[in-house]
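Input.
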Amino acid sequence: MNQVQFQAPPLTKINKVILIATGACFLAASILKAIGAFSLASILGLSGNGLLSGLVYQLVTYPFVEINLMSFLFNALVVWFIGSELESQWGKKVYLRFLLLTVLGVGLIYTLVSLLFFFGTPVYFSSLHGLTGINFALLMAYAMLYPDRHMSLMMIFPMKARTFCLILAGIEAYMAFFSGAMSSWAHLLAMGISYLIIHFQSRPLIRKVLNASFQSKPKRKNHLYVVKDEDQKPPKYWQ
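Output.
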């Protein structure tokens, strides 16, 4: 009898650090909530109020704050499966810079909109946090690079990666327009930034920032040989 075996990809270094940091923050947030202390999301999560108060580090720390168990588990799986494959394909340097561009891009635009249009409102004080934005960026990149690969929606319905990504974008757009969730706008923004990075990866600016192309290239072997000058001994120089 043929058995279908499922094999998880190896967890790569950067994603391992991300999951350890997020797991530690989730555990700390759970303990602080249980003892009735302060909310970790208000300290490490991103908000217009926090950034205006000088908490600039929130632009980097907000993805690591998870306060819901199911959200943490789902996001961890996406980082493991999708993120590890992209890191293996791109290399650590490009992958890390892709994540930083997405995180900082979303953070800056989110807080700018909060300061300009929602100053003093609950949106201005509420925090953006969690790995969901990073995951949407990873899924968008994956769908653009491997559009015909199959994924499973809710672990049940198989479909191509681009279809899966379009459905997720549609769900987030619905929540953004009809539920007023600012986090949904941030998730859509992450997908948009990811799309621009992948679509314009060949442009000089993107290539310079990432210092590499997303397309895999065969490694070139360096050939060392001597260039001789008939009138000079020993050889003139190496090339």
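Residues 92-117 form the longest helix (26 residues).
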